[in-house]
Write a structure and sequence with these properties.
alpha+beta, four-stranded mixed beta sheet, globular
């Protein structure tokens, strides 16, 4: 390999994080690279998700994955998200955000100045042999998973997706054809939706630069989900 080309993304977490302080040094970056390990990814208010806020609650890092049945290719889709955006939180169709009302007096958080603004980074990884055109199609489906959670895609929101494959489709492994993409689309949608929920459910209350972002109240959320039939009593 002649070169390494890093891709760096960010969301504005200026409510909790003093973003102009520039505390990260070269040593911090090199330490993070050298200390990287495999295994389960930490979720919640960790790493780049420490200062983020989603739906008025503490956001953060979330992950989820799906594996297709063997007769559909057996491919795996993994999604990692950094949630830092607004809307009215919806879980399995239940209007959790409206019921909890983290922003008092409105069912439509976008009505208040800046109330629904923010961004989300979604990273979609797969071992399916996909070229750049099909990876772009797969990335677009992650937005359907984001919509299921109640995102308003607000005026100030910079939502984007990065997708990549670990399989180049070298013979004897052919590239996945368009007619076989639908199961991968469904897997990406489901994994994105679940990863977002995990980022909220794993987060803890964080006090920061301009105030406090409280963790989603789990007990109240479960009560609402049962009330709307989103989970079994």
């Amino acid at each position: 390999m002649r070169s390494a080309n890093p891709v760096v993304g960010e969301t504005n977490d200026g409510f909790l994080n003093n973003i102009r302080a520039r505390p990260i040094t070269e040593a911090d970056v090199l330490g993070a690279i050298q200390g990287a390990v495999g295994g389960p990814v930490e979720e919640g208010a960790v790493g780049a998700g420490r200062g983020t806020v989603a739906f008025g609650w503490k956001g953060g890092i979330g992950t989820a994955s799906r594996r297709l049945p063997a007769d559909l290719g057996g491919w795996t889709i993994g999604v990692l998200v950094q949630t830092n955006y607004g809307g009215s939180l919806t879980i399995n169709g239940a209007p959790v955000g409206w019921a909890l009302r983290p922003i008092p007096g409105t069912r439509y958080p976008g009505a208040g100045p800046g109330a629904a603004d923010g961004s989300i980074i979604m990273v979609v990884a797969t071992d399916a042999p996909l070229d750049h055109l099909r990876l772009e199609r797969l990335a677009r489906r992650a937005l359907a998973g984001l919509a299921r959670t109640g995102s308003t895609f607000s005026n100030g929101s910079g939502d984007y997706v990065i997708a990549f494959s670990t399989n180049r489709g070298a013979p004897p492994t052919p590239l996945v054809v368009n007619d076989a993409m639908s199961p991968l689309f469904q897997a990406a949608i489901e994994a994105t939706e679940e990863a977002i929920y995990n980022s909220l459910l794993r987060a803890e209350t964080v006090r920061g630069f301009r105030g406090t972002a409280r963790a989603l109240p789990i007990d109240s959320t479960v009560t609402i989900l049962k009330r709307y039939g989103a989970i079994r009593p």
